[in-house]
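Checklist before submission:
- one chain only
- standard amino acids only
- sequence pasted in full

Submission:
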Amino acid sequence: MPTKRHDIDAAIHIIDQARLDDFVRDRLGYSNRGRNGEHDTVRLFLLGAYLSIAGNAAVTVRSIHQTLTEELDLAQQLELGVKVPMNGTDGTTVIKTLPLKSLYNLSGRISAMMDLDLDDLGSWLDSAPNRDRHAAIREIPARVLSVTAEPVSFNGVWSLDSSAMWSWTRASSTPDWRRDSIRSFYDPDPEVARLFELDEVESDRQVPVEAKIKDPDATWGMRTAKAGGKQPYFGFEAHAMVADPADGTTPPIAVALDITPATTDVVEPSLHLIDTIRAAGHDVRDLLVDRHYSYKTVDRWVDELNERGIRQHLDLRSDDQRPFRAESGAVMIGGAPFCPGVPDHLWDIPRPAANAPIEEKIEFRRLIGLRSAFALVEHESNDDGSGRSICPAKKLNVGCPLHDYLATEEEGLSVQVAQMSGDPIVVPEPGHYEHPPKVCSQTSVTIRARDYGKLKQPHLWGSPEWE
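Returned file contents:
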């Protein structure tokens, strides 16, 4: 199929403006762009790769050559240097076409200079050569994005996610992926751990098993299948930061991208993307992530976000609503503090599936709204993740006989106000009248960072503000 002119122009613009060919030459130690009468193999390799992806949604050395020599017309091949005029031995001009062998030789040089050493996947970034090579791999998408992203301002709201990418090659055999994959677990998803049939999984525990693979940078990993559940795959992960433009009309824009082996822990590449964006002068204030990130331990993820002044927004897993009582007496549910009198039936509110009947979704919102009334109101947030919060009865969100019993005559009107407005009324535990918890007796209480754990976010989960 003939290559479209706008794809050729786009390829030339991106590769030349990003100076990708110069970057690759520098890495390979090439000193020139190709002497007169010879092909500029590096630039042609990059142009052919772009055009092969644009036209065929795939790229191999052979597809690059086919795209350049068969899908470009003669004028385009001469323009790009696929065909180069040369002086023949008899004094006539001959046309030399880029040989396939030249592309294979270049591909081999690139592999020799850029392949990662994954003998120990759990610590592959501890190797100085690997760090240098991965820095070079990171540089390529950064250069491309720098010349393709629109120069717009952002409002500080970002989304972060990773996507599975299958390797073009396959494992050298078809191993049982439970036995013969390379896997390193950091704060693992318990569902994934079960799928890998591990008897015991600990935070940061490495479980490397050798596997012979054709693609030296690819590893076995887990992805979410289209039909739901987990599915093994062989390849890479693409980690992306997407910005919400401040003008409110421009679509979200991918600003930073990182590519890692499939089994790489998400924390290091995620923090790298955040720091790269901040170093470029962009504000990162709010970060939207999925449930995968809540498996990370507090010190490795939440504390890092707090140090950077970033608020995370995330979905809860099915077991994240298990209540426990904080030192202040507040009941913690899903990373948020609630009144000790929040009714038992509001502790665990399952979220309906996306395709659930509308009646289930309406009931979910009703229960979330009812539980939200019992939430403590934060009035002070600290950089270390802790904060100070106020009893909801003091803000007249609920009525509470215990609050009115302990308050002054002028302030002890919460039950009366709730009766008039139809708000919930707390049923205090009998012993709290004699020995009230701090959350009931003090003007405000400290909710410690460890009480919030990994789940603190600005809005109550499931609320309209959260959605």
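Reviewer check: The chain has 16 helices and 16 strands.
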